[in-house]
Amino acid sequence: MTKDFSQYIKIIERFRGKVNQSDFEANFQSATQNIAKTDRFLLKMELKRLAQPCTRLIDLRGHVDGECKAFEDDNRVHFIDDIAEKVFKENMAAYGGYTFGVYEAVNNTENNFRVIYQKEKSSTIAAANPSASDSPKILEKLQYPAKFYPFGHYHNRSEERMNFAIAIEVELPNGEALEATSSDISVSGCKFRFHQTQKVAVGDVLKIVFKGLTEEFQFGKDNSFEYEVCNISIEENSQFIGAKRLMSVEKDGFKTFLQGYIQGNKRRYKINLDNTIQAIQSRSLEQFTLPKSNELPVFIQRQGTELLPRYALTSNNNQATYEYWQDETKRSALHFLINADRIERLIRAAKLGKPLTVYSFVHQSQGKSFFYTADEKQLAQDREFMSQFIGFAASKNTFAVTELSILEVNSAHALSPFTVANTLPKKDEYLNLPPSEEVDAIVARLPYIVTALDITDDKVHADYAQLSFKDIDKAKLKSLGHKRSATPIVVDSLGINYRNHRQEARFVYKTPVVVEAEGVKWTGVSQDFSVSGLKVNLDKSAVLSKGEIVNISFPNLQKITSSFDLKSLPYEVMRINKKKNVLNLRVFVEKHQHIGRAFFKVLIEKNKEKLTPDEYADMTPGLAKALRSIYSHVLKVPTLFVQTSGSRYKIESVGGSTPDLPLLTQMRSLSDRPNHFNLYPLLNNQQATSLMSSTLKKLQASDAPITDTLYISIKHDSELIDKAVTTKLASELQTSKLKKMFISNALKSGSFYCVLVKLSRADEPDMDHLNPELSYIGSYAIHRGKQIEQDIWSVAGVIQCFDVTQETVLRHQLLSV
Questions:
Q1: Which sign does the torsion angle of CA 64, 68, 73, 76 carry?
Q2: Could you tell me which of 625, 100, 403, 190 has the C-alpha nearest to residue 92?
Q3: How confident is the model at residue 617 (pLDDT cuts 50, 70, 90)?
Q4: Closest Cα to residue 785, out of 775, 793, 795, 794?
Q5: What rounded mean pLDDT belongs to the chain?
């Protein structure tokens, strides 16, 4: 209907859902006797329309100022926020079901952007009227809530926990017996809650009687079981106790009962998925972040008494930094940037929570590269020479400013296990294999990671180029040049790649192959092999699919060996291309040892020098994955995730190894929601956010990141967020003088932060890496699984935020002098 019923809104509210009641006609006539007959008739038709059943799905993502989530009603899944959910339930009660009245009410909530726009437009029109108020009310957003997701910390549960609420009786160490309610149970553990806080401590031994079970089942004479308190938490005025069972024997009747009871009822009561959900949410965001790393993580190896760079984790974004530190023969020069003395200074700086800034340039002479470096601590004793050296370095086009930080390596972090390791199907077990002995031996010799971030841009270069180097001490300058070593220092580059799951070295090898399945044979040629795998190019397309078992024969190889029967060896199809003519195979072992695996192991051992390794042969299989996992545990760079929401972008997630960083701590204090961060200091500048949105739409995943710099001032004496926080783009402060004034004023009234932001287009997620946990969630909570998968695919961009405050303040101090 096109009729405007806004003037009759009170009548519509009064009679919503009542058109089918027996007294509707009489009450409606009485309430509308002063309304014209035509309008009365149209109003009645409108009420009947609003009461008609509706089948439309509601999706408010991108249409409201709120976080939308899946909401299920009568086998329909809507995506609505908290305000809309409240309106939905209220109108459902009024109409007695899902009608057009419910649908329209939910689509017209007060936080709907269309409704907000209409109100603002009305206010603007009213402002133009002299009789109206002097100025329209401007809606300002002061909260940009985001949740923090920690990387690397994915703890596997040894047993499944079933959500199970029954009455229990708990006997405390002092003999007092109290009523409680279980929250979840496993074979060896239990979580329960007291409705009032009790005097219980970690380590206490409690006796528990499962009253809700003993009413139906018999456990012998003694129905009480001993549990040790492992953790205690307070949530919404309830005290939750996590406890593990103490057993005098390995297995008893109650344990056997629980094993069968949980297995038989876990779909009825649902498995507790919190641990797995938290893990896959963090793991997926980690997978978007690390391949877009802008800092270069360099693993330091202990070689005798020396500490030297040995491995660098490279990505498209940090490749330029890696290549800068190479000489004319492409040999690594990272040992000039990261040497023993500088590592000592880095360790001292890390204790104070500070990085170390290094200034460098490369001098080319007779086709050779000569590196000159000096860090701020080296130069601090002579401020005049410091200014001269940096000015001289900045006069070169090879000038670079690199910020170094040092992180300790924990070898235990080399394995990042799935939280569903005990339920993994056989085909996915290779995804969860521990590091090999060779990888463990390498990691044991790596005590530190040094991260190198190139913070040079045209503005930084231009600032430092203002420094005079007249009358520079040439002897001191020469002393900062690094002598070329006759013995090259080897630094291996390992790509940060989630799609390479190889656990064994592969070798290129071509030999005829016969593939057979269900009586049909195809001929082809092998392309490469490992002990447990094989890649085959077929002469003709094969009607095969992933997961099928095929029998492989090697006719030519059989001619050279009589010790192994190389006919009809079972292999599993792991991957097949669209044309169905390229197979990736893995040995299929059902009961006994696989003959093919034994043969290829002997073949490799006897011919390792003759065989041609493939492109990954220089890497130790599994090393890149182990180092990536270690790095994820200590990554201190906050990363924001840009997700699509309808036609808009939203940022509601932050990832990293720890939230305890200076700027994040400030943003936590600005938030009005517990356990959330207010991203107002980063997102309140409309020029910056608009630029981000327009740029991201054009950006490709392979493009270099878009870089900008934010100057942020946070006053400590103001309670109003918009008054306390001021954020400027570096381009808005066009001169060094303006920047220095901004810094000075910020430090006088509170805190100053300079944040280097780098925006990258996100790669597609590797679902093979995520599916084990995602499938597990989907098998018990299908809608939750679908929502998480949708959230994963909605990530469009990654923003890494680097705190470069220390270098910025130092630079402007030097310019002032």
A1: positive
A2: 100
A3: very low
A4: 775
A5: 86
* Cα separations in angstroms, 530 against 503, 535, 586, 597: 9, 9, 9, 9
Residues whose CB is less than 8 angstroms from the CB of residue 621 and which lie 6 or more positions away in sequence, other chains included: 436, 502, 503, 504, 505
pLDDT digits (tens, 9 = 90+) for 716-756: 888 889 889 999 999 999 888 899 999 999 999 999 999 99
Given this model, what pLDDT does residue 161 score? Answer: 85
Helices 736-749/805-816 angle, 10° precision: 120
Residue 648 host element (H or E) = strand 648-656
β-pairing, 706-715 vs 725-729, is antiparallel
Bridge partners for 225 per DSSP: 208
* Cα 622–chain centre separation: 22
Which pairing describes strands 145-150 and 648-656: parallel, antiparallel, or unpaired?
A: parallel
Contact 741, 735 (CB under 8 A): no
Written as one letter, the residue type at 189 is G
Q: Which tokens is 437 given?
A: 């002995």
pLDDT, one tens digit per residue, over 498-510 is 765 556 677 888 8
Could you write out the DSSP letters of every residue in 446-513?
--EEEEEEE---HHHHHHHTTS--TT--HHHHHHTBPPPPSS----EEEE--SS----S--EE---EE
Round to whole Å and give the CA distance between 212 and 55. Answer: 42
516 forms beta bridges with 521, 551
SS3 791: helix
**3-class DSSP state of 109:** coil
Is the model's pLDDT at 249 over the cut of 70? yes
Mean pLDDT, residues 632-643 taken together: 94
- Neighbouring residues of 460: CB distance < 8 A, sequence distance ≥ 6: 401, 811
Backbone angles phi, psi at 510, to 5 degrees: -110, 125
User: Which of 254, 259, 172 is CA-nearest to residue 208?
Assistant: 172
What are the tens digits of pLDDT across the range 27-46? 888 888 778 777 778 888 88
Closest CA to 149 of 288, 292, 315: 288
> Virtual CA dihedral for 254, 257, 259, 261, nearest 10 degrees?
-130
Average pLDDT over residues 189-202: 90
Length of the chain, in residues: 817
Q: Using an 8 Å Cβ cutoff, are 85 and 71 in contact?
A: yes
pLDDT for the residue numbered 133: 39
The mean-pLDDT minimum among 143-157, 412-426, 570-584, 604-618 falls in 604-618
The most distant pair of C-alpha atoms in the chain lies apart, rounded to whole Å, by 105
CB 766 within 8 A of CB 499: yes
CA distance 327 to 364: 10
Q: Count of CB atoms within 10 A of residue 749's CB? A: 16
Q: What is the C-alpha to C-alpha distance for residues 175 and 177, in angstroms, rounded to an integer?
A: 6
